[in-house]
Amino acid sequence: MFLPGDIVRWYDTYDDIGIAKSSGLGVIISVHEFAFYETPVYLYKIYRTEKQDQVVYEQHKLELLKE
Known about the structure:
Strand order of the largest sheet: 4-3-2-1-5
Radius of gyration: 12 Å
Number of strands: 5
């Protein structure tokens, strides 16, 4: 699970196939947890630095950057 303030690489993919069409860096603004059966689902609001906007991503479309 990521935390607010973490710097991540985000990936936009084509809907019908799992190929990335764009990616970039962003900062996690907030985390939303949803109870989905027994496994929680996390959605992350990201500030995308290159596009200067805010978008919500699922965890599998994010990668934590390490120092």
